[in-house]
Amino acid sequence: MNALPKTLAALVLMAALCGLAACANDDGAASQPAPESAAEETVASAEASEAEAPEVEAPAAPEVYALAIDPAQAPAQRRDSHSDWLTIDEEICAAVANDQDFRIEYTYFNEDPDDALAAAESGEVAGVVGGVAITDDAKTAFDFSDPYFEDADGVAYGLAVPKGQSAELLEAFNAGLADIKANGKYEEIMGKY
């Protein structure tokens, strides 16, 4: 008999035996072939560990804070490359939020800053930026972040939140403001205005 048919017959016999061995497993699952090397054994062990590992929770989504803003606070505004208006407030807040891993959604109040303050007091928004000066009078109703802008008259501006509310927002904002001042991002933003 020729060597080729003998080899072919041996291969068919081996395949049939492997198939029978897989079917003969006690628990009905296909058996795993023995690893041929230490590397294969390590991979097989790692795969088994992954299958048995407890499910890990996905990281929580960043906190989202609603802020009221009056974007018409010249000279603290400029046009970006798309001719959209940007304000110092928005750019500072974006840098702070990025640093502290939270998001901001704005509600725009273009007419009366008092409307923005009323929105914060009613809980419609967590706080107000832009157009709210840090004054003794304002401090009776609002807590303020550290100042992030001072106008030509020396009036300071910061994030305002209703007294006793949103302490976590103020804490995160102040920490982020300190970080962007330390890493140069604050000066980069201020240089645009």
Describe this structure in words.
This protein has six helices and nine strands. With about 190 residues, it is an alpha/beta fold. The protein has two domains: about 50 residues, no CATH class; about 130 residues, 3-Layer(aba) Sandwich (D-Maltodextrin-Binding Protein, domain 2). The strands form four sheets. The chain has a three-stranded parallel beta sheet, with helices on both faces. About 10% of the residues have low confidence.
Strand line-up in the sheet with most strands: 4-1-5
Poorly predicted ranges (pLDDT <50, ≥5 residues)? Answer: 7-13, 20-31
The CATH topology assignment of the largest domain is D-Maltodextrin-Binding Protein, domain 2
What is the string of helix and strand elements?
A: HHEEEHEHEEEEEHH
Which helices and strands appear, and what pairs or packs with what?
Blueprint lengths: L2 H21 L14 H15 L10 E7 L7 E3 L5 E3 H13 L1 E7 L4 H9 L5 E3 L12 E3 L4 E2 L5 E2 L2 E3 L4 H16 L2 H6 L3
Parallel strand pairs: 1-4, 1-5
Antiparallel strand pairs: 2-3, 6-9, 7-8
